[in-house]
Amino acid sequence: MIETDILIIGAGPVGLFTVFEAGLLKLRCHLIDSLPQVGGQCSEIYPKKPIYDIPAYPSILAGDLSDKLMEQIAPFKPGFTLGETAVEIEETDDNQFIVTTNLGTKHKAHNIAIAGGLGVFTPRKPPIPSLKFFEKKGVDYIIKDPEAYRDKKVVISGGGDSALDWAIFLADGVAKEVTLVHRSKSFRGHLDSVQRIMDMASDGKVKLMTDSEVIDVDGKEKLEHIIIKTKGEENTTVSIDSWLPLFGLTPKLGPIAKWGLEIEKNAIKVNTFDYSTNRDGIYAIGDVNTYPGKLKLILCGFHEATLMVQSAFKRVYPDKNNVLKYTTVNGVNGF
Ligand SMILES: Cc1cc2nc3c(=O)[nH]c(=O)nc-3n(C[C@H](O)[C@H](O)[C@H](O)COP(=O)(O)OP(=O)(O)OC[C@H]3O[C@@H](n4cnc5c(N)ncnc54)[C@H](O)[C@@H]3O)c2cc1C
Asked: What's the structural domain count of the chain?
C-alpha cells in the first residue's frame, strides 16, 4: 500500500504543480497517471508547441514546461504510479481514502486531488479491423515528436485543425512526402490553415485527396501500404511509412465519473473556496473541474492547486494553524 498526504490523480501540469504547493506546507504527494509519462496534454498532445501565457515565460514549449515543473517539484520527492488508471475509491474508518488502479496498485491518502484534465485520452479511431496491429508500427493517432517523420512518406487523414496544422508542419521541410486525405471537399479547420494547404497543394508541396478515405492498412512487421477509396474512382494502394489518422480525441472522464461526484458537462462541480467537491476530502483542480467563470487554462489550474492544498493541510493536521510564508523568506525546504 502506497501512503501519502495528497493522492493526485493526473500528472498533467496542474497535478505536478500541486506537489510544489503541497510541499511548501510539508505535505507529501503521490501521483497516478494512465499515461506512461508526466505532463498530461502538454506532453501527449502538443509537446513541441510554444505556450505564450505562462507568467514570466514569454514563450515555452509545452514539453519544456513539463520538464521545468518536474525540476521545480524534485525537492519534494513525489511518488509516481504511471501507466495505470485510477478506477476505484473507497473510504476507510480513519477518514482516509484508498484508491485502486486498473492493475491493482493500492494507494491510501488523507486527501484526493483529482487533476484528471480531459480524462483518459481516447483517440477517435477509424473502423479498420487490422488497425490495432499497426499502432505505433506506422500508425499514430497523436504526434509527439515530428522528427520521427523526417524524410518519411506520410499520409494524414482528417479535416480539422490538427490534421491541417500537422500536414503544413510536416510538409515544410520535415517529411519527404505528405498526402492529406479527407472524406469531404470542405475542411473544418481555421480558414488560414485551409488556404495554406490549398496553396501548398498547388505548389506541389502537399498531395491533397478529398472525397477520399483510407479503408485498409497492410504490411508484414510494420505498416507498408494503405488502400484509399475516392468517390467515383478505383481504389488506390499507396506505399507509405506512416499513417496519421487525426480525427480528434474524445474527452472521457472515465472511471472518476462513477465516484459519486457532482458532474456537469463532463466536468466535476467544485466550490471555488478550495475547489472541494461534494465529497469531503476529494478536490478537483485544473481542466477537470467546473464552476461559474471557469477557464481551462494552465495558470488557472495553478491557482486552484494553491488554494486547494490549504484545505488539504487542515485535513491532515486539524489542530495546526498554517500561516502563509513567502518562498523568498522561507526558501524551498524539501523532504
Ligand atoms: C493543442 C492545445 C493547446 C493548448 N494551448 C494552451 C495554452 O496556450 N495555454 C494554456 O494555458 N492552456 C493551453 N491548453 C490547455 C492546457 O493544456 C490544459 O489547460 C492543461 O493541460 C490542463 O492541465 P491538467 O493538469 O488539468 O490536465 P491534463 O493536462 O489534461 O492532464 C490530466 C492527466 O490526468 C490523467 N488522468 C485522467 N483520468 C485519470 C485516471 N482515472 N487515472 C489516471 N490518470 C488519469 C490523464 O492521463 C492526463 O495525463 C492547450 C491545449 C491543447 C490541446
From this structure: 2
Q: Is 39 in the pocket of ligand 1 (CB under 6 A)?
A: no
Indicate if ligand 1 lies below 6 Å from the C-beta of 32. yes
**Ligand 1 near 119 CB (within 6 A):** yes
CB of 78 closer than 6 A to ligand 1? no
For the segment 155-207, what is each residue's pLDDT rounded down to a tens digit? 999 999 889 989 999 999 999 999 999 999 999 888 888 999 999 999 999 99
Placement of cell 476529494 in the chain: 282
Between the CA of 298 and the centroid of ligand 1 the distance, in Å, is 8
Instruction: Determine the average pLDDT of the residues in 109-124.
Output: 91
Q: Which residue has the cell 514546461?
A: 65
Q: Are residues 27 and 104 in the same domain?
A: yes
Q: Are 47 and 56 in contact (CB under 8 A)?
A: no
Q: What is the pLDDT of residues 204-241, one digit of tens each?
A: 999 999 999 999 999 999 999 999 999 999 999 999 99
CATH number at residue 208: 3.50.50.60
- The answer to whether the CB of 66 falls within 8 A of the CB of 72 is no
User: Distance between CA 137 and CA 123 in Å, rounded?
Assistant: 16
- Kind and range of the H or E element at 170? helix 161-171
